[in-house]
């Protein structure tokens, strides 16, 4: 159905922008959804492509949409209010535990499929770490950060990643995606944890944003749940 511009006194691009925002607010469009092409919007609203582009450009700048070169424009995660985003370092301090980290890899890699719509590129800086509480491996994590965070290659990442980011004026404040499931460890993962292959662990996928709704990192974590007396971690 052709959408008609109904307010002759309001700029056309603004009416298109508001129409897209309304779909996001009413959850007709959700995080990860791909928008129509500019040509399709042009035909639907019967306006010029320049008008469509201006509306989309503003939504990208405001953090509602993200463009992925060669793939299209996607809806970004919209955070529902500020939540406390505790680092594992802080959780361990609160419980009187000693946290250490073995940094297994720091490299540029392809963004996992679940996170691609949230990044401005299909590449990211991946930091893989094995986290240990009082010397016992409890978490295997992979953090994916924007490629412009090149300072990470020169930093000591065995401590708090949030503190490293804060030193470069990047402050994680808001949790976004929070997906939890069950997974069995592979042989390779079991060796890292020093447990038997096939042990069931929590698989957690999450995202963290700053107060301007800019993505700071996306993460994949495998967390042991068979050590309740050693450590309690709330996802």
State the end-to-end CA separation. Answer: 43 Å
The SSE string, one letter per element, is HHHEEHEEEHEHEE
Fourth CATH level, the homologous superfamily of the largest domain: Chorismate lyase-like
By DSSP (H or I, 4+ residues per run), the number of helices equals: 6
Structural class category: alpha+beta
CATH class of the largest domain equals: Alpha Beta
Main sheet: strand order:
3-4-5-8-7-6
Strands, count: 8
Mean pLDDT figure: 85
**Considering DSSP H and I runs of 4 or more, what fraction of the residues is helical?**
10-25%
Strand content: 25-35%
CATH architecture of the largest domain: 3-Layer(aba) Sandwich
The coarse overall form would be elongated
Low-confidence stretches: 80-85
CA gyration radius, whole angstroms = 21 Å
Number of separate structural domains: 2
The CATH topology annotation of the largest domain reads as Chorismate lyase
Task: Report the sheet with the most strands, covering strand number, pairing sense and barrel closure.
Answer: 6 strands, antiparallel
Protein name: GntR family transcriptional regulator
Pfam family, one: UTRA
Organism: Enterococcus avium (Streptococcus avium)
Keywords: DNA-binding, Transcription, Transcription regulation
């Amino acid at each position: 159905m052709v959408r008609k511009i109904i307010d002759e006194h309001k700029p056309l691009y603004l009416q298109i922008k508001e129409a897209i925002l309304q779909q996001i607010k009413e959850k007709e469009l959700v995080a990860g959804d791909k928008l129509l092409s500019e040509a399709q919007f042009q035909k639907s609203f019967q306006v010029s492509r320049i008008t469509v582009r201006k509306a989309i450009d503003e939504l990208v700048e405001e953090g509602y949409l993200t463009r992925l070169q060669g793939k299209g424009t996607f809806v970004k995660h919209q955070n529902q209010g500020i939540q406390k985003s505790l680092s594992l370092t802080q959780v361990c301090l609160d419980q009187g535990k000693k946290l250490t980290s073995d940094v297994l890899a720091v490299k540029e890699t392809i963004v996992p499929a679940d996170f691609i719509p949230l990044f401005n590129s299909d590449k990211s800086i991946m930091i893989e770490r094995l986290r240990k509480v009082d010397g016992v491996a409890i978490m295997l994590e992979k953090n994916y950060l924007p490629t412009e965070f090149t300072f990470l290659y020169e930093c000591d990442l065995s401590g708090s990643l949030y503190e490293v980011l804060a030193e470069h004026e990047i402050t994680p404040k808001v949790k976004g995606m929070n997906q939890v499931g069950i997974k069995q460890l592979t042989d390779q993962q079991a060796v890292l944890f020093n447990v038997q292959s096939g042990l069931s662990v929590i698989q957690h996928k999450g995202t963290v944003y700053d107060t301007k709704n800019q993505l700071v990192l996306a993460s994949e974590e495998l967390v042991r749940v068979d050590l309740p007396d050693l450590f309690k971690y709330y996802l």
